[in-house]
Amino acid sequence: MNKDHKVLYSGMQATGNLTLGNYLGALKNWVGLADEYECYYGVMDLHSLTVRQNAPEFRAHARELMMLYIAAGIDPEKNVLYLQSSVPCHAELAWILNCFTYMGELQRMTQFKDKAAKHADNVNAGLFTYPVLMAADILLYQSDVVPVGKDQLQHLEITRDIAQRFNSIYGDVFTVPEPYIGKIGARIMSLQDPSKKMSKSDENPNASIYLMDDPDTIRRKCKRAVTDSEATIAYRDEQPGLKNLFDSYCACMDKTPDDVVKEFAGCGYGQVKEAVSEAVIGVLKPLQDRVKELAVDKAYIDNVMKTNAERAYYAANKTLRKVKKKVGLTDIR
Fold first, then answer.
1. Exactly one of 6, 200, 322, 326 is catalytic; which is it?
2. Catalytic residue list contains 243
3. Does the annotation mark 318 as catalytic?
4. What are 273-282's pLDDT values in tens digits?
């Protein structure tokens, strides 16, 4: 990896199935960033523990996410792709940073409020301190930039606050990260409620297209997608369901909304949905085929996970050792 490049850090949780929105909005745009940045992409399995997991399924999801990273075109030799839990520095730094984070800061986090309401029977301490672990993830690698959407911006802000607070006491230990402003990925909304983002945690199975959905499933979900009663081909906010279908089609076919409106002039919504489903199938098939190839080559994935964990640990431990020395901890390793 090019040490002259700035460091970019991101990751996805190792639960649920990634959606078309995850791919078009983020994963697709990570490909190629290694030419400009030193990139670390985590499979964030420690974060997933705030919700109870079925252990075998959880491990399988983490492994599949690693395969999806690679299948999407993210080279594990040019980038560092690793399991968060395989680098113990994350948990160790999170504890130290907990001691430099204030209760009031964590209580203001909107995601904690939302998740606490959703999982009222399991409002655990990990859910409360989740932003501190996220800060540790980012700061361990001296990250310069972090790709964030609006829903994650508050987490980056508290990461910056923690880093600046620590640096004001102990000197320039952490790089204070900035939000990554690059190519904006497509914002794909729920097929059943276009007022909210497509989500892998949506309870309605028809709301999201998952990356490993088979063609018939994709066609069925697109066919059931919410539109409107206007029967007018237009790209506008007043027709959010149709606009969402057009956004998906544009991202898959690399076209502009104006191109698409002209293409479907005079068509019915059924024709639009059919075209969108075929475009999505065409985009996902190569990725799905690659995942199936990787699933068979277990030795290759095991090696990627092992070697990349070592690379991640080397970088993370350099920061952790510096932090431990600053706060007065004894490190005899």
1. 200
2. no
3. no
4. 999 999 999 9
Tens-place pLDDT, residues 192-212: 999 999 988 888 999 999 999
Q: Residues 197, 221, 243, 273: which is the catalytic one?
A: 197
Structural tokens at position 279: 């475009």
Number of helices and strands in the chain (H, E): 14, 5
Choosing from 115, 221, 243, 273, which is the catalytic residue?
115
Check if 3 is active-site: no
- Tokens for 238, please give them: 């007043």
Q: Are residues 11 and 25 in the same domain?
A: yes
d(CA 170, CA 38): 26
pTM (whole model) above 0.70: yes
Strand-by-strand arrangement of the 80-83 sheet: 80-83, 37-44, 6-13, 145-146, 178-179
- Domain total of the chain: 2
* Residue-number span of the structural domain to which 115 is assigned: 6-180+298-327
DSSP codes of every residue in 232-296: ----STTSHHHHHHHHHHHHHHT--HHHHHHHTTT--HHHHHHHHHHHHHHHHHHHHHHHHHHHH
